[in-house]
Structure formats: C-alpha cells, structure tokens
Write a structure and sequence with these properties.
The chain is mainly alpha-helical. It is about 80% helix and about 0% strand. It is built from 12 helices and no strands. The protein is globular and about 65 Å long.
Length: about 300
C-alpha cells in the first residue's frame, strides 16, 4: 500500500503543474487512487481483526467513492467545469468527518470509535507544518535568486525569513508540546484529532501558503507602490496563521492566547497604514508583529511554568 501510494504521489506531483490544462484527468485519477486505495487497503486489513474499525472504514470508503466521481468528472471537463467539480469533491472530503461518515444503511461512527494514536498524529501534523514553512522559504529564496540584490530586495528577503522563523516559534515553542500532551491524555482522541489536528490545521497551513505568496509579491516590487492586493495578502496570510494557532490552543488546552488576539488587532491597524509604505517596509512591519506575538507568548508560558 505504501509503495503504491508513493508511486501515485509521484504521478500526482508530475501532473500538478498542468492540472488545469491537459493533465487534469491524470491529476484527478492519481488523487482518487491515493484517497480510495489506501482506505480500501485498511478496510481489507481490518476485516478479521476489528469489526468496529472495519465498519468505520467501510463508511469512509463509500465517501471516497462518492468524491472520486467528481475528481474524475473534473478531469474530463474543461477549466471552468473542472474547478466546479473539484470544489464539490473537496467539500465532500472535508465535510465527511464532521458527519461521522454517515452512510445510508450503515449509520455514522462516533469519534470514540476512532482509535487514534495521539503522539503519532501530533508528530505528523507538526512535520506537515515544518514542510509548509520549508517550502515557503524555498519559494522566497528562488524568487530572490532571480532579482538584483538591492536594499529593498534585501529587506523583503530578511523580512520573509524572519516571518517564517516567527511562525515556527509560535507553533513549536508555545503550542505543540502542551497540545500533544493533552491529546494523548484525552478519553476521546478521535474528537481532538478531527477538530484540532484536521480542521483547525487547515487555516494554519493556509496562512503559511498565503504568507509565502505575500513574500513573493513584496520581493518582486520591494520599493514600488503598494496596492490593495499586496496589502491584503501580506495581512491575510499571518492573520490566518494566528487564527489557526489561536483555535488550536483553544481546542487542545482550553486557553485563549491573548497575544494572538493582540497580534490580529495590530495587523488590522497596520493594514490601512500600508498605503504610506513600500511593500518591503510593510512586510517588515508584519514580521515585527509576528515576532512580538511569538516573544510575548513564549515569555508568558515560561512565567507560567516558573510559578507552577
């Protein structure tokens, strides 16, 4: 199963750059094969060992069969319809866990039926965040390598790197360890896995991706006139990341990190001021806010530990 998924993943990565062109069917078929194939394999593996898990993966398989119809339909369609079909497929796959994979004739599964290995899943999600941050740095480096090294480019480059470090600091120094500990102690690991490590990680990783786009825009025109789109992307990316981290902390340790709330407020105040800045200086200001959030949360956490 692992080797087959690796092969399908390789085909998926090859087709990705032209997924909305002539390789749409290859992309849709490879993605469907990964999602459905590994689920059917797990279903087969549980057939004589765990009736509860077997029934759960039977429901999951039915949902992936349903979504595969839209992935393949999108591959056969043109650009406009392709986006619509694939959007429906994404909605199906994202919504299914929240519905307990309800299936006609089979009912729905409870989160307490999901035997989640907390430490493993927390580690996998943390590694995924690391990969996203690493990719954002690679994008920044690749963009900077094509540009003349001016003071504006240097400022935008340093700001992008500092922002990535701050994002790492916010997640790994102040959130992930306590969350993983609570996750492992929970009597309903399935519920936390679904909420904190599946749904809430979506805006968190999306924030990293959008921030990388903002860094690329700032690097492309570091000293020029800043437009609404650049300001929006540079603010929305870190904003999504802070919202994701805030919700993650709330869902795992029942704590609202007020430093994140303050950071979101600072980004909101900064946005209209951006029209008086260059893209590079605006990017630097956003990075300062992220560092401030990380430092504030880290200091607060260490004080709490000292008192305890």
């Amino acid at each position: 199963m692992l080797l087959s998924v690796m092969l399908a993943g390789l085909v998926l990565s090859i087709s990705l750059p032209e997924a909305f062109e002539e390789r749409g069917l290859v992309f849709g078929a490879a993605f469907s094969l990964i999602q459905l194939g590994r689920t059917l394999f797990t279903l087969w593996a549980f057939r004589r060992h765990n009736p509860t898990h077997f029934l759960t993966f039977l429901r999951i398989s039915a949902w992936f069969v349903f979504s595969s119809i839209f992935w393949l339909a999108g591959g056969f369609s043109d650009d406009g319809a392709r986006m619509a079909f694939w959007a429906v497929a994404i909605v199906i796959e994202v919504a299914s866990p929240s519905l307990g994979f309800w299936t006609p004739g089979l009912g729905r599964s409870a989160t307490t039926d999901w035997d989640v290995e907390a430490a493993h899943m927390a580690e996998r999600c943390a590694l995924f965040v690391i990969i996203a941050l690493g990719e954002s740095i690679l994008v920044t480096g690749a963009t900077a390598a094509r540009l003349e090294l001016t003071s504006g480019v240097l400022l935008a480059f340093v700001s992008a790197f500092v922002a990535s470090v701050a994002m790492w600091w916010i997640y790994f120094d102040t959130a992930v360890e306590r969350a993983s500990h609570r996750f492992a102690q929970s009597k309903d690991t399935g519920r936390i896995a679904r909420l904190a490590y599946t749904y809430i990680h979506l805006p968190l990783v999306a924030g990293i991706v959008v921030s990388a786009v903002g860094d690329e825009l700032a690097l492309a025109h570091p000293s020029g006139h800043i437009n609404v789109e650049t300001i929006a992307v540079l603010v929305v990316g870190p904003g999504l990341y802070l919202v994701g981290n805030l919700l993650f902390r709330w869902a795992t340790v029942a704590v609202i990190p007020w430093s994140h709330v303050a950071g979101l407020g600072a980004l909101t105040v900064l946005a209209p001021l951006g029209f008086a800045m260059t893209p590079a200086t605006f990017s630097a200001a956003v990075s300062v806010i992220l560092v401030g959030v990380a430092a504030s949360e880290s200091i607060s956490l260490r004080r709490t530990r000292a008192v305890a």
